[in-house]
Amino acid sequence: MARNGALVPEAKSKMDSLKTEVANSLNVNLKQGYNGDLTSREAGSVGGEMVKRMIAYAQTNMK
Length: 63
Prior knowledge:
Shape: globular
Oligomer: single chain
Largest sheet: none
Radius of gyration: 14 Å
Structural class: mainly alpha
Order of helices and strands: HH
Distance between the termini: 35 Å
Number of strands: 0
Strand content: under 5%
């Protein structure tokens, strides 16, 4: 059975703020709402950097 709900609803705002922070640091023009005008490279770089930061955070906090 598919489950589309968030496990932790509060996480959405944290993920949005992380996305904004990463986009700003990479000089990607991210706006509120729809961002379909981003190139695949820009969107991928934001997503990839978010994953790298989340992994680094998890590694430092699991010790």
